[in-house]
Amino acid sequence: MVSEATRIDWIGGSCRLLQATAAEFRKTRPFEGLTIGTGIHLEPKTVALLMTLNAGGARLVCTGNLNSTQPTTVDYLRSQGITVFATQTTDPAAHHQSLVAVVAEKPDLLLDNGGDLFAIAAESPYASLLGGTEETTSGRTRLLPLRDKLNMPILVINDSPIKQFAENKHAVGQSLFESYMRFTNRSTNGKRVTVFGYGACGKGTAACFRNAFSQVSVVDIDPVTTLEAHLDGFVTPLRDDAIRSADVLVTVTGHPDIITLKDLPLIKNGAILMNGGHFPNEIDVAAFRAHEDVVATDRYPADGIETLHMKDGRAIHILGGGHMANLAGPRPLGNSVESMDLGFTLQVRCLERVAKRGVGPEACIVPVPADIDAMVASAYLDLAR
Ligand SMILES: NC(=O)c1ccc[n+]([C@@H]2O[C@H](COP(=O)([O-])OP(=O)(O)OC[C@H]3O[C@@H](n4cnc5c(N)ncnc54)[C@H](O)[C@@H]3O)[C@@H](O)[C@H]2O)c1
Predict the structure, then answer these.
(1) Which of 32, 93, 203, 261 has the smallest CB count inside 10 Å?
(2) Can you list the domains of the chain with their CATH numbers?
(3) What is the whole-number distance in angstroms between the Cα of residue 51 and the centre of ligand 1?
(4) For strand 305-310 and strand 315-319, is the pairing parallel, antiparallel, or unpaired?
């Protein structure tokens, strides 16, 4: 028998840890009688997360994040009886309304991504809120000043070492490398690639291009980190020299204005610029586009490539308009399923801990408990053996 399956089915079948956890939850039902409000990208990988919480007995009220909601995912979740307050929108006001709608349901637990839901709950508190999880560092930074108001367990997933190395290092590295090839269909062999930022994401990116036979140099503002890159065998030229020599320039710093107009004269003819950092402000694409020396622009909308032709004859290519390249351009896949399977298993185990009152208000905006990290790591290794 041949059956047609969807991407949601493929991703669900690839999330082996979540599948195993869901099988356990069908017996243990840690969320029986509880409502979980979620505000995280509504795309196929999230379905695996939400269906695991559902298997644990949770009633779910969900919304997504700005500009990333996939209608087929919403349709699927609704077909499974899950309440979704979300549409694909770039309008912050419309998105905010969907966040308010989730909190208005007075969920017992919140799964937050960027601090949106907890910030609303801090303004309109209700007694039944037990606590929950926050996915990101930016959410942690936003919620820390609200700690006294919140005064409940909130476990921060990004502060787990597993998230740091599984997603930021390995998965971002692989997916930025994959994105370069997906956008351009060009080889990496012998190309001079400069990676700006040698944090977790930069380390993975530099390693992936090196493993694909590129000559990789690293530029980091921190001399200690630059020394680490040097000892890891990367070339660490002075910044301007690194720009002058690069065929491919990748920014992954988390900071604005990494490659700006003053660098334009240095950039080599034919260079490709791409960003992997969260915000589209690491490469000043708008200023490049508007520069008086740009005499013509070729846009390849289907491929997410833009070529700026300069008065002096150089051509400079920009991928994905300077947005996170692994979530832009043709068929963006984001980070690998396995890295998300690990991160989302940390999510469900942390929510289980809060649901069981295994942590109190002293755990307000703290990293994932070490025993949960150990449990998730062991489970992944067991499946891999
Ligand atoms: N694309 C994705 O899927 C994805 C996934 C996770 C994280 N991110 C984003 O990637 C970015 C980097 O994350 P990270 O975890 O590696 O951060 P990190 O803080 O570990 O590393 C950033 C590095 O950039 C360096 N840096 C800062 N300013 C610089 C400058 N002007 N020039 C050169 N180097 C500079 C810092 O010294 C640091 O070593 C963040 O914006 C993060 O949100 C993207």
Answers:
(1) 93
(2) 7-152+336-384 (3.40.50.1480), 165-327 (3.40.50.720)
(3) 31
(4) antiparallel
